[in-house]
Amino acid sequence: MARYIKQEMSDLDGTGKKRVFYRMKIERNVDMEHFVERITHPGSGLSKGNVLQVMASVAGQLACCMAEGESVTLEGIGTFTPRLGLVKDKEIDALDGDDPKRNARSIEVNGVGFRADKELVTETKLRCDLRRGGITRVRKSPFSEEERLARALDFLKERPFMRLQDYMEITGLKRTTASLELRRLSDDPESGIDISGRGSHRVYVRKGMG
């Protein structure tokens, strides 16, 4: 039996209206050893050693294929695709221009995307017996939006810039809500807050200082 959580969604568009979504409550993580034990149950005809060897080989071949620029589809499981990102502390390049800031050494594989096979989704759905597991509400800031803006401007009076993490700490907002609110404020010519930099180097400054 599995349980679902009814979770409140942040007010992403600033309308004051709240929506909800549903998510599975994860009771625990099944590690490799326990997973293999389930596969090699008595009567399966499979040995633990052989299954471990096969799974290690699968993982190795997945890495080899993706390192060659290939995606891999395992029928009944899903498709694995490599993802790229900049090496830490490297600046994002512009799309156009004759003097690119990036070369191959500036870019690395920083993740693997996974798209589940429809068969896996269907099989999981058929086996799942859902029960209600509770409600989770969005953690609200103790300050109004006007108070949060005032705290941000006070912060910038003493410092040259403000990071997203700084805004989260002084307002009590979660990351997504704080990021969206800062974007709205930076788009508002009356807010006094502007954006400077790009990507991981993006910070917020007083208007006229970026």
What does this structure look like?
Helices cover 35% and strands 25% of the residues. A 3-stranded mixed beta sheet has the order 2-1-6, with no helix packed on it. The protein is built from 6 helices and 8 strands; from the N terminus they run E-E-H-H-E-E-E-H-E-H-H-H-E-E. Helix 5 (164-171) packs across helix 6 (175-187). With 210 residues, the chain is an alpha+beta fold. The mean pLDDT is 87. It has 2 domains: 2-79 and 117-136, no CATH class; 145-206, Arc Repressor Mutant, subunit A (Orthogonal Bundle), CATH 1.10.10.10.
Helices and strands, with pairings:
Elements: E1 2-9, E2 19-25, H1 32-39, H2 48-67, E3 72-74, E4 78-86, E5 107-116, H3 118-127, E6 130-136, H4 145-158, H5 164-171, H6 175-187, E7 193-196, E8 203-206
Parallel strand pairs: 1-6
Antiparallel strand pairs: 1-2, 3-4, 4-5, 7-8
Task: Summarize this structure as a short list of keywords or feature phrases.
210 residues, alpha+beta, Arc Repressor Mutant, subunit A, three-stranded mixed sheet, three-stranded antiparallel sheet, 6 helices
Return residue spans where pLDDT drops below 50 for at least 5 consecutive residues. Answer: none
Strand order of the largest sheet: 2-1-6
Radius of gyration: 24 Å
Biggest pleated-sheet summary: 3 strands, mixed
Kindly report how far apart the N and C termini lie: 54 Å
- Tally of alpha and pi helices: 6
